[in-house]
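Internal ticket - ligand job 300, manganese (II) ion:
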Amino acid sequence: VAEIPAPAPDAKTATSVKISNRDRVIFPESNVTKVQLADYYAAIAPIMLPWAGKRPVSLVRCPQGRARACFFQKHDAGSFGDTVHQVPIREKDGSTENYLYVDTADGLVACVQMGAIEFHGWGSSVASVEQPDRMVFDLDPDEGLDFADTKKAAEHLKEQLAELGLVSFPLLSGGKGVHVVVPLTPKAEWPAVKDFASRFAQALAQAEPDRFVATMAKAKRKGRIFIDWLRNQRGATAIMPYSARAREGAPVAVPVSWTELRDIDTAARWSVTDLDALAKRAGGRGLEGWGVADQVLPDF
Ligand code: ATP
Ligand code: MN
Ligand code: MN
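stdout (structure tokens):
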């Protein structure tokens, strides 16, 4: 009996979603078209969905391409078709809104068909919206700092988290910074996670006020790294691993190991045109266990 060859890791996932304006250029600086972006998401889906699937997502949609008007979409407008699902979530004012989530390649591609470039996710899954399964510290360097400073800061957070017994993982944002991701067993609710994140970030800023700030005020950021802990409140989102960014060169947010991070010199190291490299490294040993740890918040 002839053996059926296994699909190559970069084999395109079949998608039944029809793409209109296939040749529309979405990234003018690198000539990446709408169908190329759709193909990127279809192929990366098996690697991306364990992180981005089945959690409420907000989309950055740029229907005319990244250089034209973009908007941030949180709620379902009812136009995405049935591969993009809805989850009702209570809002602050007591009303209920339908948020979006996807769980298939078709769902990702259906969003691209609607002009989406970026996928931002909640820190909790649709199965337990009120109990976060990850905490994120988004390191935002002031202009003028180099990536080396951001890497050092990320390492510092890693060490401080480890002292509290928490394992963490770095994510290149695809933009300027690094996100330090702390997986959580979904137990504590949003207020407790937000409180921990806030106190942790403030403690770092207090210990090294010349290096870190933990408040949003732009004026206080001069020459410092803002430890953006505000991603950890109910309703906030952060860029999902393997999401493309609506920025020059079509960069992608990429999970890396702490060892790899040392030799990387930009948060925009990979782009949607690096699909083969991304698929290959995702199966490699360096990324084994990225983002996975069974841990709860310690007393702090
Ligand atoms: P960089 O490394 O360049 O900072 P980033 O993804 O961390 O990239 P930020 O500007 O630091 O970008 O983070 C903005 C965060 O705010 C994103 O994680 C996103 O989920 C969220 N966000 C972006 N636009 C909106 C918006 N219009 N409304 C609400 N939240 C938004
Ligand atoms: Mn950031
Ligand atoms: Mn930020």
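Auto-summary: The first strand starts at residue 25 and ends at 27. Residues 138 and 228 are 5 Å apart (CA to CA).
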